[in-house]
């Protein structure tokens, strides 16, 4: 069969799309569907029997005190790190956008934490906040402040992890904010200045509305990343008994709990049920954020 030029273009388009589509189906979709299937079974790796239990794993999950603890911890991670991280990043981006010389150098400095291996930074954080020998307690001692337990505390350890998450992501958020600020024409600010608008009025009426799409993107991405926090918790608050999650599970996140269930207890069915719940939470939060935060402005 002889194809027309458009037919040949379409054929090659499908051929080029086929490879990434197949990769996406095999790497993303298939494991997701398999996880849904596992969540409906009592699937223990060490047991030859894997009976179908329908929603029993979900029923057990909602009666699991540890699950509610990790859900609360994960919510604290999101609420404590996303707004603070975005606010600091926006301030840094505004400062970088206003300087005339050396912007590239300062932008590189700000971006360095993001390209630094998370595990390495997490262990530096762990050393900084050690009760004995930590540099933070040493600095506090210089001002006469008593030593703090930090990582050994059920109330302080989670905020140590949050500070690491905020610091690690500052560079990425700042660069994205800066890219958004560069897209705003200076003529808007010049016209507003002529009309007598103050810097705060210009920020409120020009910068924030025209930065809305960037802001929505960062809020959604930051929330999704924080809901899946794992590496920082695992490396910073692993206790002396080798059980990451802080004292009394005070820093244990949902993803780390899934890891413990699946690869420590070998209870894949229950771990999959927790994963499905996390998937639903992320989906709902993302949809709500897109619905209520996305706004259209007349430029």
TrEMBL record:
Stated family: Belongs to the binding-protein-dependent transport system permease family.
Entry's transmembrane regions: 12-30, 75-96, 108-128, 157-181, 210-230, 268-290
PANTHER family: ABC TRANSPORTER PERMEASE PROTEIN (PTHR30193), INNER MEMBRANE ABC TRANSPORTER PERMEASE PROTEIN YCJO (PTHR30193:SF37)
InterPro entries, alphabetized: ABC_transporter_permease, MetI-like, MetI-like_sf
Keyword Lyase belongs to the record: no
Keywords attached to this entry: Cell membrane, Membrane, Transmembrane, Transmembrane helix, Transport
Keyword rRNA-binding tagged: no
Membrane-topology descriptor: Multi-pass membrane protein
Domain ABC transmembrane type-1: 71-289
Organism of origin: Hydrogenispora ethanolica
GO cellular-component term (any): plasma membrane
Highest taxon, organism lineage: Bacteria
Subcellular compartments: Cell membrane
Broad class of the protein's primary localization: membrane
Identification of the protein by name: Carbohydrate ABC transporter membrane protein 1 (CUT1 family)
GO biological process, one term: transmembrane transport
